[in-house]
Amino acid sequence: MSYKIIISNKIEKLIDKRCDGHLKRRLFKKLLKLENTPRSYAKPLRSPLDGIWEIYFEKRWRILFEIDEETKSIIVVGFKHKDEMK
């Protein structure tokens, strides 16, 4: 069963601000890979960020998301440059 990907307006505006059209298409293609098996492409974060998963995009961006098993959805909660995570 596939998962539904949910991106809030805040995160969507952030992506629009930081990425051009070509990069956004590649980003959404990467997110679509999560629909079937999100845990196989992602890495879980440790405390204090338990429950949040991350994937790398273009070796410089991190996409942070939560997996909700009850509603079978993936909620994108962050889009950060790797330098912002330190």
Could you please describe the fold and organization of this structure?
The protein is an alpha+beta fold. The chain has one domain (4-85): YaeB-like fold (2-Layer Sandwich). Helices cover 30% and strands 34% of the residues. It is built from 3 helices and 5 strands. Strand 4 and strand 5 form a beta hairpin. The longest helix is centred in the first third of the chain and has 12 residues, at 21-32. The N and C termini lie far apart (35 Å). The mean pLDDT is 91.
**Overall tally of domains:** 1
Q: Approximately how much helix is present in the residues? A: 25-40%
- Globular, elongated, flat, extended or rod-shaped: what is the shape? globular
Compressed to H and E, one letter per element, the order equals EHHHEEEE
Low-confidence stretches: none
Distinct helical segment count: 3
| Overall pLDDT level | 91
Q: Main β-sheet, in a few words?
A: 5 strands, mixed
Question: Can you tag this structure with a few keywords?
Answer:
single chain, 86 residues, alpha+beta, five-stranded mixed β-sheet, 3 helices
Secondary structure: elements and pairs:
Elements: E1 4-7, H1 9-18, H2 21-32, H3 38-41, E2 43-44, E3 52-57, E4 61-68, E5 73-81
Parallel strand pairs: 1-5
Antiparallel strand pairs: 2-3, 3-4, 4-5
Brief overview:
The chain has helices at residues 9-18, 21-32, 38-41, and strands at 4-7, 43-44, 52-57, 61-68, 73-81. With 86 residues, the chain is of the alpha+beta class. A five-stranded mixed beta sheet has the order 1-5-4-3-2.
